From TrEMBL, chain A:
Pfam families reported in the protein's UniProt record: NLE (PF08154), WD40 (PF00400)
Localization in the cell: Nucleus, Nucleolus; Nucleus, Nucleoplasm
Entry's Gene Ontology molecular function annotations: ribonucleoprotein complex binding
Alphabetical keyword list: Nucleus, Ribosome biogenesis, rRNA processing
Function of the protein: Component of the PeBoW complex, which is required for maturation of 28S and 5.8S ribosomal RNAs and formation of the 60S ribosome.
UniProt record similarity statement: Belongs to the WD repeat WDR12/YTM1 family.
HAMAP family given in the database record: WDR12
Name this protein carries in UniProt: Ribosome biogenesis protein WDR12
UniProt gene name: WDR12
Source organism: Melopsittacus undulatus
Domain of life: Eukaryota
PANTHER family given in the database record: RIBOSOME BIOGENESIS PROTEIN WDR12, WD40 REPEAT PROTEIN 12, 37
């Protein structure tokens, strides 16, 4: 049997082994290598417990026999192979299933609560344990997106965007468990599909079907912005309909030729928007100028940015998740595409803590957990949903959330391993 | 003579030869004119003997002297010499050609020094040359030169033998493409017409010429005669006389053989593959819909018609379960449903993006519904537009009744009802969104009606019926109106009120048609599973007939932006084709089928009933008899 010489290396001090070349069978897989490492650790430390490891060669996860992997990656089998090993990510465990009355359009998790937008025209607040805390009704149409603005122990500010072309800024008094609409943000001429709050928590941006991006203030005030009245609607009638004080946008960014499906803040000055016109555009939030355009060839459903690895991930109306470099000038270079879904990718989200991991939800009812170091196959498939998945999110403390057309919000416990901290 | 006899040595020495004269060996003619012939040893002249003998003396001497015949004159001295017998014999032998020496035998027996027999001993005792056993350096040099040349490939050591096959193709001549076959070029001689009954010695009576026929035959020119001989009846073969035209006929046959142009008809060999036009690969014609992305479920019966809002956000569908549903395109969410309680035959979303109105054909009415989707201002404005109608002072006679909706209906979104007397088959909007046309199943001139929604005014544009109207369409650019009857598509100019064009579909029964956004190309689907593409600039007949479907076509559609068209059929498939239309008038449209989309299940022998493109994306919707609508992207 063919042998290879390999040198094992780890970031995790706890599981470090001697830095000498070992001869390993060429056909060994991760389980074999894992056993080898465990034997070495057990030899050095009597009270060592068995740990599953995952192995990386040149930053790529080993998912097949060692020799096949090296052939595919064109690594010479003559030299000593440097193999990095990390503790294996445990499979996410299903934890909660929260039932809604209607389809779930959006999720955003906070420290203790989960905010969901629902097709029954409400937004809901849930505790992490799955207890319904608050139902926020006020929109006249489907709630398409929700966002936390600020969380305090006393009161929270949150936003909901709806198909009725408005966004509502709510204040939620936690102690009294009362919710009050502070502002009604009007100005879009189409369904508002996406909102994003900036890192200073004073502004937010919205993207709508009317091809516009608008920037709004997220600070509650007592003043009402003047709004040009639509002459045909009697003022009295309008007053009674509206919740909260009217707010008008600070700025409008136009440039997309089709509906805007997703917006996000890259940092305090930069906004990124994905659209049905097959482009992702980067905007300067201060001046409202278009900075650059990334052009794809499919409609973009969702976009996510990770400050850890500074990459954009996009989900589009084909099966692929594509990673982009937002700073590239030519603007149409896909760094990597992750393919395993069989339907449109409706939602992607980078992990807030891990620079390589992201989750994606698709119309094929499956949520997938990806590691960019293994682009051929996802780390785990979470096939709990019975219908289309529309939204996914990461909650702090290692919780994955997903919601979709089966009106169920699934939570998965995703154990953070010790190596997560190091990574 | 005495000298010779006495002193033989005098003659032997060349020096002393005839020393009486000292002139030496010179031609004696030099002394011809002199009286002397030379000089003796003392230097005195030797005088020629006096020759004063005349002819008579010579003759006498010849007669008298018996030795005259053997007397010669010595040229050196001029003296007469009498030849001896030995000298005479020598002369005689030489004259006979014999050797001078009497004793020499020319015919001595020859003794072979070498024999043909191999002898065991060397002939000579000479030792063998050194070079006979040392290899030759020169040869070695020559050989090495050759070897080098062979190595370098300058010369070939030996030519490969041409192998003549032991067997040969016996039938090589038969194959016209083979070399042997080509050389043959045999053209058979034209065959003679075989004699018929009329040339028989005893033809049937109907072949025999009557008197008038015979006269007519005789009056005809020989070239014009139908037959060259007159049929004659004879009692028996023995009674047949000699054929008078025999030589004439043979001569004509010879003329035929050598004047008749005999040439081989060159048949062009064409590969059938080459006749197929070179079409681009579907891969290169992206984007087009390839996979099913979404299924819109909710209808309980077959979905007859679909229509999409001009911005592509909403989809409306009408079904046999009596309901119209409005869907969000991106999520397949049914936003709301309207129930009519009767089969929804056709529906059309107003193409004007600033008007939010859907026309729905249910039974005998066309219902204008405001779906209240999209921009609030827009659908509010649409309501206002409809409400701002002021009835004219005098009531006009109209083919339909315009009925405003009741409060209950208004709450559901219904705004206006156009009550026709008969079942309505189809509704369609003009591109500007004010006029709409409806088709009624009727056979009168009121089959097609054009309505103006803002003025609530209807009219029947045609005075006479031209057959059962299948569907109608407004031209996207020009003021033209297209009417498809069973077999023809008529294009009317609405301004001039005249028929501009009549297109023959070459189909048995037209089911649907669609017009290219450029306005010059029409596709029309038919129940006999054909799709005809008309180029109106080119001809009134189809530019191309596509027979890709196995069963009847139900619907055809063009994409507004991409060069795509689709056809839906009862066989449960939607076929998407690339249909590129060029601005250049010289270039014909390029039609390439790119994708067959399957997904709908056959229900009650019906497959896909309607097909529709998304207005901005390369996506296609199809509605089927299985109660679903599918989106392919």
């Amino acid at each position: 049997m063919a042998q290879l010489t390999a040198r094992f290396r780890t970031e995790n001090r706890r599981y470090a082994v001697e830095d000498v070349p070992f001869s390993v069978p060429a056909a060994s897989e991760t389980t074999d290598l894992s056993q080898l490492i465990n034997k070495l650790l057990a030899a050095g430390n009597a009270d060592h417990k068995y740990v599953e490891f995952d192995f990386l060669i040149n930053g790529q996860f080993l998912r097949m026999p060692l020799v096949t992997h090296m052939e595919m990656e064109n690594i010479s089998t003559e030299e000593v192979v440097e193999i990095e090993y990390v503790e294996k990510y445990m499979a996410p465990q299903p934890e909660e299933c929260i039932f809604h009355n209607d389809w779930i359009s959006s999720i955003q998790a906070a420290e203790e609560w989960i905010l969901t937008g629902c097709y029954d025209k409400t937004a809901r607040i849930w505790s992490l344990e799955g207890k319904s805390i608050m139902t926020i009704a006020g929109h006249t149409e489907v709630v398409k997106d929700v966002a936390w603005v600020k969380q305090d122990s006393l009161s929270c500010l949150l936003l909901s965007a709806s198909m009725d072309q408005t966004m509502l800024l709510w204040e939620w008094n936690v102690e009294k468990n009362k919710v009050k609409a502070l502002h009604c943000c009007r100005g879009h001429a189409g369904s508002v599909d996406s909102i994003a709050v900036d890192c200073t928590r004073t502004k937010f941006c919205s993207g709508s079907w009317d091809k516009m991006l608008k920037i709004w203030s997220a600070v509650p005030t007592d003043e009402e912005d003047e709004m040009e009245e639509a002459a045909n609607i009697p003022r009295k009638k309008q007053k009674t309909e509206q919740l909260g004080l009217t707010r008008t946008p600070l700025a409008t960014l136009s440039g997309h030729t089709e509906a805007v499906s997703s917006v996000l803040w890259i940092d305090a000055e930069e906004i990124c928007s994905a659209s049905w016109d097959h482009t992702i555009k980067l905007w300067d939030a201060e001046t409202g100028d278009l900075k650059s355009t990334l052009t794809g060839n499919k409609v973009f459903n969702s976009v996510s940015y990770s400050p850890l690895c500074r990459r954009l991930a996009s989900g589009s109306t084909d099966r692929h998740i594509r990673l982009w470099d937002p700073r590239s000038k030519d603007g149409s270079l896909v760094l990597l595409s992750l393919t395993s879904h069989t339907g449109w990718v409706t939602s992607v989200k980078w992990s807030p803590t891990h620079e390589h991991q992201l989750i994606s939800g698709s119309l094929d009812n499956i949520v997938k957990l990806w590691d960019t170091r293994s682009c051929k196959a996802p780390l785990y498939d979470l096939a709990a949903h019975e219908d289309k998945v529309f939204c996914v999110d990461w909650a702090e403390g290692g919780l994955l959330l997903s919601g979709g057309a089966d009106s169920k919000l699934y939570c998965y416990r995703y154990p953070t391993t010790a190596s997560d901290v190091g990574a | 003579m005495a000298l010779l006899a006495h002193n033989e040595y005098e003659e032997d020495s060349s020096d002393e030869e005839d020393i009486r004269n000292t002139v030496g060996n010179i031609p004696m003619e030099w002394y011809q004119d002199f009286p002397h012939v030379g000089y003796d040893l003392e230097g005195k002249r030797i005088y020629k003997p006096i020759r004063n003998k005349d002819e008579l003396d010579l003759f006498l001497e010849k007669m008298e002297n018996p030795d005259y015949w053997r007397t010669v004159q010595d040229p050196k001295t001029g003296a007469d010499l009498k030849l001896t017998d030995e000298q005479l014999e020598l002369v005689q032998r030489l004259q006979k050609g014999q050797f001078g020496d009497v004793h020499f035998n020319p015919y001595e027996p020859s003794i072979d020094f070498f024999t043909h027999e191999v002898m065991i001993h060397p002939v000579t005792n000479r030792p063998a040359d050194k070079r006979s056993f040392i290899p030759s350096l020169i040869e070695k040099e020559k050989v090495s030169k050759l070897v080098h040349a062979i190595k370098m490939g300058w010369i070939k050591p030996r030519k490969p033998k041409e192998e003549t096959p032991t067997y040969y193709d016996l039938w090589a001549h038969e194959d016209p493409n083979s070399i042997l076959g080509r050389h043959k070029m045999h053209v058979p001689a034209p065959k003679m017409k075989l004699p018929g009954h009329e040339e028989s010695y005893n033809p049937p009576p109907e072949y025999l010429l009557s008197e008038e026929e015979r006269l007519a035959w005789e009056q005809q020119e020989p070239e014009e005669r139908r037959m060259s001989v007159v049929p004659q009846q004879h009692r028996s073969l023995r009674a047949v006389p000699a054929f008078p035209r025999f030589i004439h006929e043979r001569f004509e046959r010879c003329l035929d053989l050598y004047l008749c142009p005999r040439q081989r008809k060159m048949r062009v060999n064409v590969d059938p593959e080459e006749l197929i036009p070179k079409l681009p690969k579907p891969r290169d014609l992206q984007p087009f819909p390839t996979t099913q992305a979404l299924v819109y479920r909710g209808h309980t019966c077959l979905v007859r018609c679909i229509s999409i809002s001009p911005n592509g956000q909403w989809l409306a569908s009408g079904s046999d379960d009596g309901s119209v549903r409005f869907w969000e395109v991106s999520t397949a969410r049914c936003m709301h449903a309207l129930s009519f309680g009767a089969v929804v035959k056709s529906l059309a979303w107003n193409p004007n993006p600033s008007i939010c109105l859907v026309a729905i054909a249910v039974e005998q009415t066309v219902v204008l519904v405001n779906p209240c989707l999209g921009d609030k201002l827009l659908y509010g404005a649409t309501d206002q537009l409809l409400a701002s109608y002021v009835p004219p002072d005098e009531e006009r006679v109209q083919p339909v009744q315009w009925v405003p909706a009741t409060a209950e209906q208004h709450r559901k979104g219904i705004r206006l009802l156009l009550q026709h007397g008969k079942e309505v088959k189809q509704v369609t909007w003009h591109g500007k969104g004010d006029y709409l046309a409806s088709v009624v199943s009727d056979n009168s001139n009121q089959q097609v009606l054009i309505h103006q929604s803002s003025k609530r005014w209807s009219q029947a544009p045609f005075r006479r019926s031209k057959g059962l109207v299948q569907c109608v369409l407004f031209h996207p650019i020009r003021p033209h109106f297209l009417v498809a009857t069973q077999r023809y598509i008529r294009v009317y100019n609405l301004l001039k009120q005249e028929l501009t064009k009549k297109l023959m579909s070459n189909c048995k029964w037209v089911s649907s048609m669609a017009i290219h956004p450029g306005g010059d190309n029409i596709i029309c689907g038919s129940y006999d599973s054909k799709l005809a593409w008309f180029d109106m600039d080119l001809s009134t007949r189809p530019y191309r007939l596509l027979r890709h479907h196995k069963r009847a076509l139900r619907s055809v559609a063009f994409h507004k932006r991409y060069p795509l068209f689709a056809s839906a059929s009862d066989d449960g498939t939607v076929i998407v084709c690339h249909g590129m239309v060029y601005n250049d008038l010289l270039q014909n449209p390029l039609l390439v089928p790119v994708k067959v989309l399957k997904g709908h299940e056959l229900t009650q022998d019906l497959g896909v009933l309607d097909v529709l493109f998304h207005p901005t994306q390369p996506w296609v919707f199809s509605s089927g008899a299985d109660g679903t609508i599918r989106l392919y992207t």
